[in-house]
Amino acid sequence: MQVEGDLGSLELDGNVRVQAQRYRLKSQHLHLERGPRGVEADGSAEVAFCTCDEPPVRLRVSHATLAPPTDALFVSPRLEVGGVPVFWLPGLWLRAPTRLGLTFPRLSYRGEDGFFAGGGAYFPLQVVDGRVTKSLTVGAGAYLLRGARLEAELDTEGSRSRVAWDHLQQSALELDAHGSAPLSEATFAYRLDALRGARAAIVSSSLEVSARRTDRLRVSVSHVDEVALGFGVRADAARGGALRDLGAAGPELYLGAARGLGDSVSYDVFALARSTVTTGSHSQTELFQRGTLSAKLRPGPLGIDLTTAQSSLLQVNEYRSQGLLRGGLQARVGLPLLRHFGSVTHFLEPVIVARGLVDATPRGSQLNDERTLLAAGGIDSSLGQRSSRQALAFTLRAGALEHAGSTQLVGITRTSVDSHWVGVAQSFALLGQSPAMVSLSRVRMGRADGLHLSLRADGASHGSPARARVLFDESWFDPARPFLDRNGWSAGSELTVPWTRTFSTSASVDYDLSGRELLAAWGGLGYRHPCGCLAVASFVGHRVGRGGPGAFDAWVGFDLAP
Questions:
Q1: Which end of the chain has a smaller Cβ tally under 10 Å, C or N?
Q2: 562 prior amide bond cis, ω within 30
Q3: What is the DSSP letter of 272?
Q4: 235 in a domain, yes or no?
């Protein structure tokens, strides 16, 4: 090291290392001088973004200006990956998250849409104590001059909102926003998930995003004390509708309360009033009410659970009014038995369950009712370790179901396994002599954080699967709970292979067994350097609707600050 007399510059020779915040320079000769922006480093040098001896990604530059903690400017940077040059720029300006800057360019191949390239800008809107609490990211790109995409994302400590407009012969508008904020004595919350326009059904590479049936908007202000009171705006529309089609939208007011009445009795009540206007100026008013009363009795060794539930729905529009009254009663009697075998606990409970449902629909001056009665018996059993959450649970029940004047035999099995190496969640129901089947299955083989294979299968056959809802404890009275609503079978699998501590691959496939059609197939790899200076993620896949069988989507992403 040679020091100038005025202490304004340094000459460094040999194995030179200069550290400035998260940037590290290595060189055989550097001339350092204090400049108006920071420290000027003149001379060929390697720039790393971490402290490891052999960084996977580095820049080779001829001149650097280091202005910590916010900026670093490089002249003639050459990007090297594993020591191999892959990219060159005449200049590069890197900025901290607290400063305005450009985002990393985006490049992908999107099936029959072709190549897509884009970039964006980042705006830190609010910085508190060196921490970004609100930021805006905007981006734009093009499909080889045949189309374009514009998007913006706003992030705060309590919310995230993203909007994107995609156009290629046709247009699609993507909206995804959620957040909440405390008010003086209430809470404001919103949730928006929408995909609109003629291109909406094919714009996303994700099968799960495209397969959602409904676009939804919820905005509410609520106060929760002993009573929950809220006011909001709600909108629902079919997924992928026209941009101007807002579906059914309007205000709603809701009121609810739930509490215990002593040690064994509790109640839960809820009421909702909603007014909606659909596209075409058709208006409708809905009044909904639900209440449940539950009691848990313990006479001697028995456990008795009684639940009575009631709900009503009234819909009024300019043409007609219609309503639905529903009443339900459930009685569950069990004999819980528990035994310990060292560190292993075995639970066994013979159970008898009886349920009754009555749905009444007004028809003029009369009520047309539809009754469903279930009587079943069986066992609930589980085996697990007291010192951990690993357990095996099994439920087996059989009985009779009476619906619309006909009686049929029913059976249900449920299996659950929760362990380090195996995970199972399977439900199977069988109804009638010419059996109608409903099956919901999830299986994981291998550790969740290691090598594992996930299998999934869902389906129903021979009749409406909605009839099987009454067989399941969690959905017997709640028609709004998601459930299969049509016949058909589908299956899927996902394999995750962590080859090393830093490198892993994944592959997944979903198939429509009834329609004999491939729904989606994709694969990807991920890499994360041990010192945390680099993360790489990639994707290549195909899904139904995204072009022909040979069309696929692909992208790769790099993160130098994971």
A1: N
A2: no
A3: E
A4: no
Q: In 3D, which of 445, 437, 447, 334 has the Cα closest to residue 395?
A: 334
**Tokens 């920071």 — which residue?**
38
d(CA 201, CA 454): 27
Q: How far apart are CA 251 and CA 249, in angstroms?
A: 7
Q: Look at residue 424 and tell me if it is in a domain.
A: yes
Tokens of 250: 């309007």
Asked, for residue 514, whether it belongs to a domain, the answer is no
What's the confidence (pLDDT) of residue 7? Answer: 65
- What phi and psi values does residue 405 have, to the nearest 5 degrees? 85, -5
Residues 117, 95: Cα–Cα separation, whole Å: 22
Tokens encoding 136: 């805006």
**Structural domain count of the chain:** 2
Structural domain contains residue 42: yes
What pLDDT is stored for residue 365 in this prediction?
A: 64
CA torsion angle 155 160 161 166 (round to 10):
90
pLDDT tier at 547, thresholds 50, 70, 90: confident
Instruction: Give residue 396's pLDDT band: very low, low, confident or very high (50, 70, 90).
Output: very high
Q: What is the mean pLDDT of residues 277-298?
A: 89
What range does the domain containing 34 cover? Answer: 2-96
Residue 56 is encoded by which pair of tokens? 């996977």
pLDDT of residue 222: 95
**Residue after which a domain boundary falls, among 74, 96, 118:** 96
Choose among 535, 499, 539: nearest CA to 522: 539
The whole-model pTM stands at: 0.81
SS (H, E, C) 152-182: EEEEECCEEEEEEEEEECEEEEEEEEEEEEE
Exposed e or buried b per residue across 472-493, where buried means at least 16 C-beta atoms within 10 angstroms of its C-beta: beeebbeeeeebbeebebbbbe
3-state secondary structure string across 304-365: EEEEEEEEEEEEEECCCEEEEEEEEEEEEEECCEEEEECCEEEEEEEEEEEEEEEEEEEECC
Closest CA to 169 of 146, 142, 141, 145: 146
| Distance from chain centroid for Cα 244 | 27
CATH number at residue 37: 2.60.450.10
Nearest Cα residue to 161 out of 102, 246, 99, 219: 219
| Cα(60)–Cα(48) distance, integer angstroms | 9
- Three-state DSSP state, 532: coil
Q: What is the pLDDT of residues 231-259, one digit of tens each?
A: 999 999 999 998 888 888 999 999 999 99
Q: Please write the tens of the pLDDT for every residue from 211-223.
A: 888 999 999 999 9
State which of 468, 491, 514 marks the end of a domain. 491
| Helices and strands per DSSP (H, E), number in the chain | 2, 37
Structure confidence at residue 95 as a pLDDT band (50, 70, 90): confident
pLDDT at 294: 96
Cα–Cα distance measured from residue 241 to residue 172, given in angstroms and rounded to the nearest whole number:
10
**Which of 105, 116, 141, 110 has the alpha carbon at shortest distance from 205?**
110
In percent, how much of the chain has pLDDT > 70? 97
Residue 4: the pLDDT is 63
